UniProtKB/TrEMBL annotation:
Residues 1-22 form the signal peptide. It comes from Sphingomonas canadensis. Gene3D superfamilies: 2.40.160.20. It is found in: Membrane. Residues 9-201 form the Outer membrane protein beta-barrel domain. The lineage of its organism: Bacteria, Pseudomonadati, Pseudomonadota, Alphaproteobacteria, Sphingomonadales. This is Outer membrane protein.
Amino acid sequence: MKSLQIITSAIALAAMAMPAYAQEFTGPSVGVQGGWNKTDVRNPQSELGPLALEGSKDAFVGGAFIAYDYEVVPNVVIGAQADFSIGANDEIEYLTSVGSVTLDPKRSIDLTARAGYVILPGTLLYARGGYTNARVRTTMTVGGTTSSGSEDRDGWTVGGGVERYVWKNVSARVEYRYADLSDGDGKFDRHQVLLGIGYRF
């Protein structure tokens, strides 16, 4: 985690030191993003019922996004974004005296809106929020018998970040997101720090 913080800080400082461009934050864009993902669970609900599972897992996450932004008045930007991401080695396994439980997030889809303010030429500070959905596979082994099931977990996500032009039509961003995918009394939370590169048309 410490190394990720150093990398994130270095990229953010490098982006701020790059020359700004005069482009507005208006129009469609596509891009890729990746970074740190942490999932925290405590007795979550599942297709197999309540799980006696507690733990967390740090992993790498990567994906792609498509977005549209519009500068409604000078320096004020609103937009919408859809993104798809997959984690690597993000399974959470919990061993019990009679078997094991494994929670394996397969992919996630976020549909979010954002609002931001152009704090410097070519630099946008923004907040984000909206809907998230995670496809999760659960595997339970008890007394030598294994059962499994997959489900789509619906939730909400909020966060924010900074985006800056680094070249003509190309911008870089650093963003934090929190997501709550809990159901009932169980806990299923996700934290992410994402670095992204986008191309604006």
